[in-house]
Amino acid sequence: YAVSSAMNAMQQEPGVAAMQPQRVEELLFRKFYISYVDSVRREDVNFSRKGGYKMRVKYEVRENLIANLDFVAKFEKTVSLDGR
Fold it and tell me: pTM for this structure?
């Protein structure tokens, strides 16, 4: 939920469409830090200009549940950063 909220907040950030991807990433990770999100790495965030300015976060968390049994959580979300 915190990752999705941070991404939606970036979508509403004033002037985000004119920012460089590095600046957007920096602001996003500040929001992650405030929300105690530690499972997303910088490699998990991608930017593209195909079909408009978009930011995608895709990552997987794998944790031990019991003995040799793990649980896996996958997350993928893309938001448009075109200033609309």
Answer: 0.82
Question: 28 burial class (0-12, 13-18, 19+ CB within 10 angstroms)?
Answer: buried
Per-residue pLDDT, averaged over 68-78, amounts to 94
CA separation for the pair 66, 59 (Å, rounded): 22
Write down the residue that tokens 């593209």 correspond to: 48
Q: Which alpha helices (DSSP H) does the chain contain, by range?
A: 2-12, 21-34
Nearest to 32 by CA among 55, 52, 2: 2
Rounded CA-CA distance 36/30 in Å is 10
Residue ranges of E strands in the chain: 45-48, 54-66, 69-80
Note whether 42 and 25 are within 8 A (CB).
yes
Q: Parallel, antiparallel, or unpaired: how do β-strands 54-66 and 45-48 relate?
A: antiparallel
